[in-house]
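testing teh design pipeline on a random one, pls ignore if ur not involved
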């Protein structure tokens, strides 16, 4: 059975105070129809401890946005699995295109971070996807298959989420057509040994496109950036109409 997971990626937004304000509104807007859908907030490190205490025992789960492959060491600015686990984090985003683009993240480091997440009891959300130039050149499928080949060796697919995030659709307002996202996600699934891996779509998900996205039979959820920062907007997304 594939799990449905709707995750918000807050990126470098939200102080602790703003996170609490968000939660107050957001929690009251979650409808019963959410049922077994899992809701995850991937918050900045500074807000994770407070959110964990506030969310304790509730239906919302917590995600981080990075993890180092070592458990500790001289790695200024990095964060480790045991540190995240200790404060109640469940998920961690790995290989996001913003990390690949601005912080030198490679498939090799993504693979090390994925394996570290699993080693320390966190479920990684691996982001893959092609750039506009790669899509225009007709290379999208090959790029994604190569990312999976490089990112997944040694990774346990029983404890993994993948997000298909076409780079050209991230933060641009340009959404990939739901049927096209469905096609690519089917391709991603065909590369896995575990067909039950949750595969999300990410890239300008909004209240006005989430229903159609979630009607696609291969799509098991969404990774939502900008639209997860407003509690009413994100609530409408998690309350999507199936
Ligand atoms: C993201 O950051 O993973 C993302 C999909 O962003 P946005 O929803 O803003 O396009």
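output:
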């Amino acid at each position: 059975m594939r799990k449905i997971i709707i995750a918000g990626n807050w990126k470098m937004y939200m102080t602790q105070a703003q996170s609490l304000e968000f939660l107050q509104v957001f929690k009251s807007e979650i409808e019963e129809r959410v049922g077994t859908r899992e809701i995850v907030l991937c918050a900045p490190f500074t807000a994770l401890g407070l959110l964990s205490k506030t969310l304790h025992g509730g239906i919302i789960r917590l995600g981080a946005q990075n993890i180092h492959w070592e458990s500790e060491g001289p790695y200024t600015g990095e964060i480790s699995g045991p540190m995240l686990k200790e404060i109640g984090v469940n998920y961690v985003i790995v290989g996001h295109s913003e990390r690949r683009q601005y912080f030198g993240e490679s498939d090799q480091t993504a693979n090390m971070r994925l394996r570290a997440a699993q080693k320390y009891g966190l479920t990684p959300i691996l982001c893959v996807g092609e750039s506009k130039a790669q899509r225009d050149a007709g290379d999208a499928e090959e790029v994604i298959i190569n990312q999976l080949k490089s990112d997944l060796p040694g990774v346990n697919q029983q404890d993994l989420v993948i997000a298909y995030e076409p780079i050209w659709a991230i933060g641009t307002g340009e959404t990939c057509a739901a049927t096209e996202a469905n096609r690519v996600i089917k391709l991603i699934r065909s590369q896995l040994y575990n067909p039950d891996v949750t595969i999300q779509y990410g890239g300008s998900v909004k209240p006005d496109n989430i229903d159609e996205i979630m009607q696609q039979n291969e799509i098991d959820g969404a990774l939502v950036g900008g639209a997860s920062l407003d509690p009413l907007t994100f609530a409408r997304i998690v309350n999507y109409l199936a």
